Amino acid sequence: MGTCKKCGAQLTGRANQQFCDNKNKCKMAYWREQHKQDQTQGATLTETLSELADLRAKEEDQKRIIQEQAQRLEEQEQELFQIRRKLDVDRWYHKDTQVRGFKGWLRKQSQQVRGDLGQRILADDLLLLRGSRAGYESRMRSQHYSQEDLQEFAHLWKLMLLDGYS
Asked: Coiled-coil stretches, from where to where (predicted)?
């Protein structure tokens, strides 16, 4: 024969008997223990699943934050590139001695880009079709263009340099 599943007492009686003569007491106590273990395991499983869900949410948040930082970094790199390019354009402008087709470039630009000064330069027969930056500035000074006009000319010349026009 066997022993009681709960208290371990020797069993007397049927061959398939699982609990002692205190059958109801041992059987109920055994069932409560098993049920309590199931509840404990269920609670532990629920807690583990909850923690896993929290970890996944945190991981998604961290991924989103990393993506935002990567995008911000790329934007800052683009901004830095633009700033460096502007500095380069200022250097190009001051070092530029090449003869360029400034009036030809102006003709290809929209009225908005040209502005009033661009229209006046195109209409001015004393300004050559092609010339150096210094040559244009010298002729413009001798024809009494204003200081604002000369600053606008510098801006237009820089735009032409950025376009790679020669």
From this structure: 49-86
Place of tokens 């460096």: 84
Q: Is residue 8 within 8 Å of residue 19, measured between CB atoms?
A: no
Tell me the C-alpha distance between 72 and 98, whole Å: 39
| Residue found by looking up tokens 């413009």 in the block | 140
- What gap in Å lies between CA 139 and CA 151, rounded to an integer? 14
Dump pLDDT digits (tens) for 123-151.
Answer: 999 999 999 999 999 999 999 999 999 99
Q: What residues have CB less than 8 Å from 160, skipping those under 6 apart? A: 100, 102, 105
| pLDDT at residue 3 is higher than 90 | no
> For 25-50, what is the mean pLDDT?
75
Indicate whether this model's pTM tops 0.85: no
Helices and strands, number each (H, E), in the chain: 5, 0
The domain ranges of the chain are 98-163
The per-residue pLDDT for 21 is 67
Pick the closest to residue 150 from 138, 165, 162, 163 (CA basis).
138
The CA distance from 12 to 16, in Å, is 10
